[in-house]
Specification:
Layout (H helix, E strand, L loop, with lengths): L5 E6 L5 H13 L3 E6 L3 H4 L2 H8 L15 H7 L3 E7 L1 H9 L5 H8 L4 E5 L3 H5 L1 H12 L3 E2 L3 E2 L10 E3 L3 H13 L8 E6 L4 E2 L5 E2 L6 H12 L3 E6 L11 E4 L3 H12 L4 E4 L6 E3 L18 E3 L3 H4 L9 E8 L3 H11 L4 E6 L11 E2 L2 E4 L4 E3 L3 E2 H16 L1
Parallel strand pairs: 1-2, 1-3, 3-4, 4-5, 8-11, 8-13, 11-12, 13-16, 16-17
Antiparallel strand pairs: 6-7, 9-10, 14-15, 17-19, 18-21, 19-20
Length: 397
């Protein structure tokens, strides 16, 4: 996504400038070429040499930098994206008025590239009708915005928006903006992820090794492609993906109910969760003491969610299942694809090194209902997610 992309990072003068240092570094680490443009007030908070060290390129702060007065024209035309973080109340007002009184506002007036603004200011300033009107004007002119968020400000805690979004959030919104229009744009995508847990007693549970990483990567990638994403997640230790609506569940029955509730409006379902196949037939209302000796737990099968919710599927939707096997993986996956009436199934071998549960990588095969098989190499789960969504988009076109 970011390799070789040219990004102009505009920084206006606010205490949130320190976050822009992390933002610049993250963009460079991702492979982007970053030119930093500082306003004079921004340079009072963070010196240009800091950004030069982080970006590996000269910092620009004057209309007379890099070849004279035409620098703003070159910067306005050249980049793939312009990010302004922080975008102060003063900067927003000047851009809304169409002023060009420094290098940053001049390049924003001359720009051709998409622009992402990350407002940051005192909560009273953000709530002021003048600021709200300026933001509305900028949205009407095609500027994209991320934040601000609720949280601690320089002057102390606040329960109203004003705090600049975190660098990772800004990068996620920037990536979505760079993607442009895709077949998933505006589509509703439901993704399930993680394990479920079935109670033996109030303390003990039956579960599996699923970390939820595969489903979370799919949800992130789908949102980045412009989809409206609902992530139904079992208990995992992962942060919620940016922009994604997360519904938390614990048991297989709760997962089934959540899928049933969202499925009729879903253009795509990616069933990446690993629900428990069995549950205790008679869970105890109290903890069973170890001193009682061996513990026998009669088990009963849980419902197959893809089968029990089939009647809720939206006509024309794309349904993706997953199969984690330990032998004859392709044959077992084909049988599941047919039995559960899927469009695609993602299969991998649980015993393969570096693949399956708890790893950051995976090696899968994609099978479709037409009988095509695509075997992917071992790669990151985000790369696997992109391949899955490529296959989904091919069915939506």
């Amino acid at each position: 996504m970011w390799a070789g992309r040219h990004v102009v990072l505009g920084v206006s003068g606010g205490i949130a400038c320190y976050k822009s240092c992390f933002l610049a570094r993250r963009l460079v680490e991702a492979g982007a070429v970053v030119d930093v443009v500082l306003t004079q007030s921004a340079a009072e908070f963070v010196r240009p040499v800091t950004f030069e060290a982080l970006s590996g390129r000269p910092v620009l702060s004057s209309l007379w930098d890099r070849g004279g007065a035409l620098a703003h024209i070159e910067l306005g035309r050249a980049p793939d994206l312009i990010i302004v973080a922080p975008a102060t109340a003063n900067l927003l007002a000047r851009v809304a008025l169409g002023l060009a009184d420094d290098l940053l506002t001049s390049l924003l007036l001359a720009r051709r590239a998409p622009v992402l603004l990350a407002p940051a200011m005192n909560d009273e300033m953000y709530a002021n009708p003048a600021t709200q009107r300026n933001i509305a004007i900028l949205r009407e002119r095609g500027f994209a915005l991320v934040g601000p968020e609720i949280g601690a400000l320089a002057e102390g805690p606040s329960e109203r928006p004003g705090r600049m979004s975190e660098p990772e959030t800004i990068i996620a919104h920037a990536a979505r903006l760079l993607r442009g229009k895709t077949p998933l744009q505006g589509r509703r995508v439901v993704v399930t992820a993680g394990p479920t847990r079935e109670s033996i007693d109030p303390v003990r549970v039956v579960t599996n090794r699923s970390s939820g990483k595969m489903g979370y990567r799919v949800a992130e990638a789908a949102w980045e492609r412009g989809a409206e994403v609902v992530l139904i997640s079992g208990p995992v230790a992962l942060p919620s993906p940016v922009g994604v609506t997360v519904r938390r569940v614990e048991t297989t029955k709760e997962l089934e109910d959540a899928v049933r509730a969202d499925l009729s409006e879903a253009d795509v379902l990616v069933m990446a969760a690993a629900p428990a196949d069995y549950r205790p037939a008679h869970p105890s209302a109290s903890k069973q003491p170890r001193m009682q000796g061996a513990l026998a737990v009669p088990m009963e099968p849980t419902d197959d969610i893809l089968s029990t919710t089939e009647e809720r599927r939206k006509p024309g939707s794309v349904i993706v299942g997953f199969a984690l096997e330990t032998g004859d993986a392709l044959d077992k996956a084909r049988a599941k694809l047919e039995r559960k009436h899927l469009d695609l199934i993602v299969v991998n071998d649980a015993l393969e090194p570096g693949a399956g549960f708890e790893h950051d990588t995976n090696r899968v095969a994609l099978l479709d209902r037409e009988g095509n098989v695509r075997i992917l190499p071992l790669q990151s789960k985000r790369e696997v997610a992109e391949a899955i969504l490529d296959a989904v988009e091919a069915r939506l076109v």
